[in-house]
């Protein structure tokens, strides 16, 4: 069983994703405020983070949060990050897994909302397996 942290301001989505991942045998936490995530992660390092991009106070907060996790905190930099977002629906910028890089979008995987929860579970399992090997 892994501890998965969902960082998303959409409570309904976060709750539904948490149920889907809990049903797969994982312990799941939810953070809705991106400002407290890094501090809380230091107290309990998750095995994987599911991270949204857009938050009400900052439409690109998820990108900054991913960079902070990867580059500013030694204890957290190896945590797999699954960016799961509707950013392309709201801002047609065409972000995809092709944009993943160590500097600007340092995540492990990129998925677009809406997402089928079986796809979410498959991605999570794949990332957890890669992280443990």
TrEMBL record:
Gene3D superfamilies linked to this entry: 3.40.50.2300
Pfam families: Response_reg
Organism: marine sediment metagenome
PANTHER family the record matches: RESPONSE REGULATORY DOMAIN-CONTAINING PROTEIN (PTHR44591:SF3), STRESS RESPONSE REGULATOR PROTEIN 1 (PTHR44591)
UniProt name for this protein: Response regulatory domain-containing protein
Record keywords: Phosphoprotein
Domain Response regulatory: 3-128
Cross-referenced SUPFAM superfamilies: CheY-like
Gene Ontology terms describing biological process: phosphorelay signal transduction system
